Amino acid sequence: MMKLSRSLLSRNLSYEKRLFGEAGDVRDALCLHVFAFQSGISTATRDFSLNVASKGNSAARVYAPYTVYKGKAALSVAPILPSFTKLDSGTFRVERQGVMLLTIWPSIGERKYDWERRQRFALSATEVGSLISMGPTTSSEFFHDPSMLSSNAGQVRKSLKIKAFSDGTGYFISLGVANNILKSNEQFVVPITTAEFTVMKTACSFVLPHLMGWDRVTNQSEPVDIVGKLSKENSQLLDSEWDK
Amino acid sequence: MMKLSRSLLSRNLSYEKRLFGEAGDVRDALCLHVFAFQSGISTATRDFSLNVASKGNSAARVYAPYTVYKGKAALSVAPILPSFTKLDSGTFRVERQGVMLLTIWPSIGERKYDWERRQRFALSATEVGSLISMGPTTSSEFFHDPSMLSSNAGQVRKSLKIKAFSDGTGYFISLGVANNILKSNEQFVVPITTAEFTVMKTACSFVLPHLMGWDRVTNQSEPVDIVGKLSKENSQLLDSEWDK
Amino acid sequence: MMKLSRSLLSRNLSYEKRLFGEAGDVRDALCLHVFAFQSGISTATRDFSLNVASKGNSAARVYAPYTVYKGKAALSVAPILPSFTKLDSGTFRVERQGVMLLTIWPSIGERKYDWERRQRFALSATEVGSLISMGPTTSSEFFHDPSMLSSNAGQVRKSLKIKAFSDGTGYFISLGVANNILKSNEQFVVPITTAEFTVMKTACSFVLPHLMGWDRVTNQSEPVDIVGKLSKENSQLLDSEWDK
Amino acid sequence: MMKLSRSLLSRNLSYEKRLFGEAGDVRDALCLHVFAFQSGISTATRDFSLNVASKGNSAARVYAPYTVYKGKAALSVAPILPSFTKLDSGTFRVERQGVMLLTIWPSIGERKYDWERRQRFALSATEVGSLISMGPTTSSEFFHDPSMLSSNAGQVRKSLKIKAFSDGTGYFISLGVANNILKSNEQFVVPITTAEFTVMKTACSFVLPHLMGWDRVTNQSEPVDIVGKLSKENSQLLDSEWDK
């Protein structure tokens, strides 16, 4: 069982807060997913995304989570790319790291799932490294405190556990959220086959350099989107998503 | 031996039906392969493909299967990319998942193969994950019912088995199709060396994120083809392929 | 020790003949490498390359072999990409498979190597698969007959052997060319460390889908160069290389 | 423990000297990183970079190191891409190999690090191969002499050691610089978890073909930046970075 150092927690947690707001804000599942996938959207005024097409106003935002539906819950995995800040020198610096977003929501009947009760966990690049390095018999455990940098520190505690089956044919992925403020305690468990976990590991290995921004370092000849125009575009998109 | 849960079968099977029609429709091998590789062609009116060039009317469709010819049969592997739907918000959502298409057809003499008797098996992303995770001594087995969502459910049964040689120097890939309607029972077996299987695993690992659409998530600055124009292009192509 | 089936030999051998002519034709090392890397150059009139830039007349040909210099010989590895044929339907089909080109040439003194005595071996995609699947204690052996499809069949025999050190710290790569016509028998051996072999395996895994043309299948939105113009460009380049 | 042959040292060392000047020259951390990432900047007049955008004067330089902060020191890893020379024939040849740049700098208090005392180590492609091939119990050691090709040869000695924990849960990465001229001896040690090392290995595997220039061989349709204009651009950038 591997536990990650708490020195890395604060970054993930304030990130989740900033990106998703309070639990329950988003009514439409599609809105949430699209919002989550728009890397670069933040309250910082000089925040740029190098992930949106630069040709005029058309941006290609793509919604492609890998989702598995099981008896007790469903689990969805998708990358959220980093955002960049442009320095005066013209160089782009990573503003917000990319993450791998896990979402789990419970089953409420035969082939029916309750999206409203979803819980999320945003894996950092290093936590993704932990997942990639897992073998058929190892386990990993990650702890996040979404309120770590605020006055509510310690009130909400999220834990993600990936535990191998004893026979090596799969893993249990369980996400627990203990919320002292709401007096709630959610626990979701999803069994994952070796094949499904291989898909996740392979896709994570593919996307990890993108979460780190290294695809931008190696691909410097690609067009880069311009500031202000991008923020307005994303704002409009966001409004239209929220009104659905 | 690993058997995949039947909860994933229906999606693959209706997909194969929709893409390929009844067995025997396509007379020209090249037509079939090209048709198969045109991701995004479906009867849905708002079905888009993000895989076709956006510059004017020129689209770069590429035919590049990995094929091995053995004594009793030949086997061909090629990716079919996913298709996307454009939402009102401008976001693209995966409409139809990508698959890895396996085609096997029997030998009828020295260096002669009967393309007309080919059988196909479309591996989903998760089934590809199963293939990638195979070691030198493991085996996998997949079952598809192409008619699962129709009145003919249970009448046609496809099984793909990948079984390791006992000495670890290769695998048998066997595809069986039992058809109660046609009263036929085809069984093809192709021995694959470790080297050939490594090519398949490496190529599958490369293409898996593309089957999932994750290359589109990470590569948002690439041009995206526009709806209507795309459908007409593909229709014309399709007609010309069928008439050959 | 793995020996590849001879059924795959003919393709590689006529390919080497067509691409490189007789041993000794090329006087300038750079010429040879550049010629070798211009995928798509062949005597076929309708042979296209999808690897050359389509913007006007500027094509980005890149010369970037991975080379190691050892006491007795030097070894160089570089990919040669496939070439494509355009069908009437507008679809591109692989015309000539890509290969991984190994070149070995002997040392003739302290830090001096004799490029004129170089020997080449072009690994097919499947042979690259064999290399990628090698562990620290395995060995591989490949046999090519460059004259297999001609009247000189059996007169020239090339063998490439990759044999692990007994202590697992590296490999011997030896290339032997027995030529009954020239009455010559060249044998070159290069010791490769585990680190150097890891570079080759990693680079081979990266480039294998490109050798198969699968990067073209997944990247259909990239511009494609036009026929006639390409052939003339490459011809001019070739002449200028030969005259150096 | 693996020691690399000294025959490869000279290339790395003169490279580090040429790129970074004497220790202590750069006052601003960001300057150094940006300078380091501008592949292609050298004193050679005909040195080109294929890594800078070709559209007009806008170049997308991206600063995205993977950094871990530990108790005694911080460690940063980032790729520096190769630079290319354009031959008269129009072919591009690798001028300077790419490297993976490791930077370590010491802690001077709670969450405080002294950038001024940083030390760097530039891993060649082969040394990156060594890192990628490491298992949970192996170790690697590399030696560089930055002054090898000058009159100060032997006066400065850098060693980078990557040593696995005995329980297989991580590695110590230690960088030592013994400088006889300055009479100094710096030693930095950073403990790395298995997860963090997996991120480095995965990112290194991704970037290795780019360090070798093989992404340029496989991606020949991408635009290529023009000579003279590039050098002037980079010079201006460099001046502005140094004056910060």
Automatic annotation (TrEMBL), chains A, B, C, D:
It holds the Pfam family Whirly. Keywords: Transit peptide. It comes from the Eukaryota. InterPro entries: ssDNA-bd_transcriptional_reg (IPR009044), Whirly (IPR013742). One of its GO terms (biological process) is defense response. GO terms for molecular function: single-stranded DNA binding. PANTHER family: SINGLE-STRANDED DNA-BINDING PROTEIN WHY2, MITOCHONDRIAL. Belongs to the Whirly family. This is Whirly domain-containing protein. It comes from Cephalotus follicularis (Albany pitcher plant).
